[in-house]
Amino acid sequence: MQWPLIACLLLPGILVYLGLHIVRREIIFVDLALAQVATLGTCVAILLHYEPKSTQAYLMSLGFTFVGAIIFTLTRNRGHHQVPQEALIGIVYVVAAAMGILLLSRSAEGNEELRRTLIGDVLLVSPQQVWRTFALYIGVGVVHFVFRKKFFVISFEPERAVAEKIAVRWWDFLFYVLFGLVVTSFVQIGGVLLVFSYLIVPAVCANFLANKLSSLLIIGWLTATIASMIGLYGSYKFDFPTGAAIVCVLGAALLLTGIFASFRRKPETVCEHSDPKKAVDVK
Q: CA 186, 190, 194: angle at the middle one, nearest 5?
C-alpha cells in the first residue's frame, strides 16, 4: 500500500487547486467531460492494440484532451445564456462515454477495460508513474503560479477580466490545456470517478466553510488527504476497490461538511473587486 498511499497524498494537491477554479467558473462537469474525452483516447489506443498504460495510449489520450480543451474554450458563454456551457459539457461527456463503450465492445476485454477507466487501479501504481506524474504537476503548478493573476481574474472575476481587455479566450485555452494534462495523467492512475471526486468534492467542502483563498486551499487539501487515508485503510481492511472506497469517503466528507456548515455562518468576503455573490479573497 506504500505507493498507492504516496500517490493519493502527493497527486491530489493540484487537483484540489484546479477544482476551486472549476467550482467558481460554475462548470462543475468539465473535469468529468475532459476525463471521459481522455478515456476515449485510451479506448482508441486499446483498439489499435496498444497497452492502456503505454506511451502511445497516453499521447493518444492527451491529443483527445486537447481537442476537448479547444471545444470548451470556444463554447464559454460571455454575456448570453441561451445555450449554457454546462449543457454542451454534458453533451461532450455523454457522446465521449458512448463512443468509448462502442470502441471497447470490439475488444476481447472490453468490460474489464471499461471498469478500469471508471474506477482506475491505483493499487497497481508504480514508483516511476507516481514521480513522473508528480513532476508534471509541479510544472503545471509553476505555470499557474507565474500567471496566477490572469488565471484568478478570469475564473473569479470574469467581468473585470473583460473590462481590463484581457485575452480571455487565450488564457481560457491555456487553462484547459494545463487542466487536460493533469486530468489525462491522473485518469491513467485513478480512473474517471476518482479524478472528478478529487477535483470537486474538496473544493465544494472548502466553499462551504471559507472564502479566503488560503483557507479554501488548506481545507480542500486536508479533506483530500484525510479522505485518501481513510479510503485506503478501508480498502485494505475490507478488500474494497480502492478508488471507489476513496470516492465514498469523499462523499461522506461532503455530507458532514454540509451539515456542519448549515449550523455556522460563513465569514464575509474581503475581496473588494468581485461580485459579492462570487467573491473570494485571492490575496
A: 100
